[in-house]
Amino acid sequence: MVPDHGRGIGDEWTSHGSSIPHSNETWLMVWGAGIQRLGVVKTHEQIYQEQYAATVAKILGFNYMARGHDVGHAIQSVIK
Question: What is the DSSP letter of 53?
Fold first, then answer.
């Protein structure tokens, strides 16, 4: 599960956009067979939404390739 975009914090949690602090931050939740239960994981690794498709594909045993644009690499901390 992933949100489609980030949200602000505090009084601005209902908004998003470049003028809202922290609205560029999102989360990722992964569960299922073969996924280790780790609870909330915080890493120093910067993770981008462009990595989500490659990560889900890798979990399912596929190699995601997009046509006409680059995609991010699978998120290794999720796959381990």
Answer: H
C-beta atoms surrounding 55 within 10 Å: 22
DSSP three-state, residue 57: helix
Q: How far apart are CA 35 and CA 58, in angstroms?
A: 12
The tens digit of pLDDT for each residue in 3-48 reads 767 777 777 777 777 788 887 787 788 888 778 888 888 878 888 8
Does residue 15 sit in the same domain as residue 39? no
CA–CA separation, 79 and 76 (whole Å): 5
| Residues 42 and 18 placed together within one structural domain of the fold | no
- For residue 65, report the phi and psi dihedrals to the nearest 5 degrees: -130, 125
